[in-house]
Design goal:
The chain is mainly α. It has 13 helices and 3 strands. It folds into 2 domains: 3-87, DNA polymerase, domain 1; 114-291, hpI Integrase, Chain A, CATH 1.10.443.10. The chain has a 3-stranded antiparallel sheet with strand order 1-2-3, with no helix packed on it. The radius of gyration is 21 Å and the shape is globular.
Length: 297
């Protein structure tokens, strides 16, 4: 936490204890939830949070296997925290106002259609080094279903482009091998050949994707902003964030008859029940098609 974030959280906890009369244990629970949210945000200050950040955090909790009860508690904590910031005049609006509470039924992840994916992946200007980097990143995320943190931590030693696979280090330092398609291989090779070298100049870095400034490792927030910018540029009329490419990866594989166990392994899920959420997405799509196309739908 930055000093500013820590100050906001500490004043909020004091408010809960002194003015709202909450128990010490409840206050500790709120502090834990806010710390988890802050860690998820990476470099986004708590006072600059927008609704998509909170929705992405709730999706992240769902993917981790947290129960709807735990997710609702986390959202309740954020509601109280941001209402407190509004009460104190620190913020003008509460970013949780229109966020629905997770229900007992399964939350279906958002995803892009193949056509929408094509628009997003074709948005970068590949005539420029930065565009080549961004193109490679987008192709890699959609080709592998990597989490954004895994993409930012991806090292050149983990790439095997001739054999078309990548070694990904996920949660708990667990490693998995993920196959990558021809387009991702093509654009990553182009980026390594024509883009990365120009971004690094005379510097070196173990990471595949580097910033233009000093060749530093990219942050999750940078990837978030990059994807949101390209989504706006290509006219996608929905909220687009890094995790939506992971959801799209899994959903499109399932829609094209990939087996659930293979998807689980590629996503790095520890429990098959986490992957099974995508079967609900496929079922909803079939229901929608039936209602739209069947004479008595």
């Amino acid at each position: 936490m930055t000093l500013d974030d820590n100050s906001l959280v500490s004043s909020f906890i004091s408010y809960l204890l002194a003015e709202k009369g909450l128990s010490v244990n409840t206050a500790k629970s709120y502090r834990r939830d806010l710390r988890a949210f802050n860690n998820f945000l990476d470099e986004v200050p708590l006072r600059e949070v927008e609704p998509p950040h909170i929705e992405a955090f709730l999706s992240y909790l769902m993917e981790k296997g947290l129960s709807p009860v735990s997710s609702r508690r986390a959202l309740s904590c954020l509601r109280h925290f941001y209402r407190y910031l509004v009460l104190k005049g620190i913020l003008e609006e509460c970013p949780t106002t229109n966020i629905e509470s997770p229900k007992h039924w399964v939350h279906l992840p958002s995803y892009l259609t193949p056509a929408e994916v094509d628009k997003l992946l074709n948005a970068p200007d590949v005539s420029q080094p930065l565009g080549l980097r961004d193109k490679s990143m987008l192709e890699m995320m959609y080709a592998t279903g990597m989490r954004v943190s895994e993409l930012c931590n991806l090292r050149t030693a983990s790439l095997n482009l001739p054999e078309r696979f990548v070694r990904c280090t996920g949660k708990g330092a667990k490693q998995r091998l993920i196959p990558i398609g021809a387009e991702a291989v093509k654009w990553t090779a182009e980026y390594l050949k024509r883009g990365r070298r120009l971004l690094l100049k005379e510097r070196t870095s173990p990471f595949v994707y580097v910033a233009q400034k000093r060749g530093k490792q990219l942050s999750r927030q940078f990837v978030w902003e990059m994807i949101r910018r390209y989504a706006a540029e290509c006219g996608l009329d929905k909220r687009v964030y890094p995790h939506i490419l992971r959801h799209s990866f899994a959903t499109h594989l399932l829609q094209n008859d990939a087996d659930l166990l293979s998807i689980k392994m590629m996503l790095g899920h520890s429990d098959l029940s986490t992957t099974q959420i995508y079967t609900h997405v496929a079922k909803e799509r079939l229901k929608s098609l039936h209602e739209k196309l069947h004479p008595r739908g």
